[in-house]
Write the structure tokens for this entry.
Amino acid sequence: MSGGDAASVVVRPMGDRALLAEAGSLEAVLALHAALDASRPAGVTDLVPAAQTVLVTLDPAVLPLSRARAWIAEAAGPAGADAAGPGPLVEVAVRYDGPDLADTAELLGLTTRALVERHLATEWSVAFTGFAPGFAYLVGAGWPFEVPRLAAPRTRVPAGAVGLAGPFCGAYPRETPGGWRLIGTTRAPLFDPDADDPVLLAPRSRVRFTEVTA
Amino acid sequence: MSLRVLAPGLFSTVQDLGREGRAALGIARSGALDRGALRLANRLVGNREDAAAIEVAVGGFRAAAERDLWVAVTGAGGDLHLGGRAVDSHAAVHWPAGEELSLAPFVAGVRAYVAVRGGIDVPVVAGSRSTDTLAGLGGAPLRAGDGLEVGREGLGEVPTVDAVPWLTHAESPIEVRLAPGPRAEWFAASALSLLFDGAWTVGSAADRVGLRLDGPTLERVRDGELPSEGMVPGALQVPPSGRPTILLADGPVTGGYPVIAVVADASLDALGQARPGDRLRFSHARPSE
């Protein structure tokens, strides 16, 4: 992964217990988040990646804001990204039975089977979460498609629905409204409130989809 | 069961110190809005400060002990009765089996904490017993008839304390310190002056997710929304309407409205006691470095 460019990361204030590092692009966020995660000092309470930023929350009694700024600047430099290893690999079994599968394939100029094959062959990784506990925004290495959201969002998307929107793939941890184009269904425990680790797909996790046909 | 809810009042939930450090998983901090009051209530009955207690909004809460308990009520103030007798808040009180604890509507502040020696023992979800009202984590808001277990872990002695110095945040205007936010340049220079010099009032939309403020319009010099970015409790978000909202503990972990400033951590407890119509006055937080 290429390093973030130190000059392009802007560190902004976010109150007295956080800083917002603006990396500018999703790729730069992935690199910056990986570098921060690999060099995380004591006193950092959370690293929250988003589309263009990484929010760093901290306990200023342990890590003063000024020292956190210096650490972020260093992590954003070329040496930072080298320290970051790959995230854990998670396999997610999907039945490709989504109500929008055929339409989405047609929209992308593919056969339904070709879209499924491309989705299965892609190595995905969690760029960030949001929207609901355990909802992960996945980006695919070499995934070239931009998928428009539905013109009218569904009022009910069932838990386990796997969808596409923009450059992202995502799976709904529970029933909510949603505008993503649904291509399949998974029974993976995306959010298990009783587990010690309730979220299956945390930022930086790598995700491989497998097909359920039976 | 150790105690039985007879009347939940307007809105009561179980809260501890929340789920800090899980925003990257999409999980908000949640937890007591007045953390100082929760900590004190727990100390008064010999609990760990982070034990779970009942957060009662507005008052009108009644519950009966089903075994002998110790209880302390802190935070928002109103008449407090146990077994028909008036008792003190901010003190450990013996709560015999069969007797009824009753919190009258509060006359100062909006959230009280009912801590029972041993802690309220509801299931831990993602590291906390707190109810997150936005994400729907933890138990549902309490209803009449609900039974609650009380734990027996982590107990110290019930301290011998005659009087606890305590000031319920009921001053108006409530003094709130603001630290810089990441998107101040989205606003006209006049907006920052208005923020600190203007008269602000807590609007009718005020809950655990956030407080909508009434006051001057904060004029933006940039339109549209940001790509979603991480939020923190205390973030002062300004939607295109120019009417700011202060996010609180159950607020969304990411958002697309620009944050002009962020409430200093030390001022958040006071906002947890702010009710619709209360006036707020913002001042600059002392730089922390």
Remarks:
- Chain A has a mean pLDDT of 92.
- DSSP finds five helices and 13 strands in chain A.
- The CA atoms of residues 123 and 184 of chain A lie 17 Å apart.
- The longest strand of chain A covers residues 132-140.
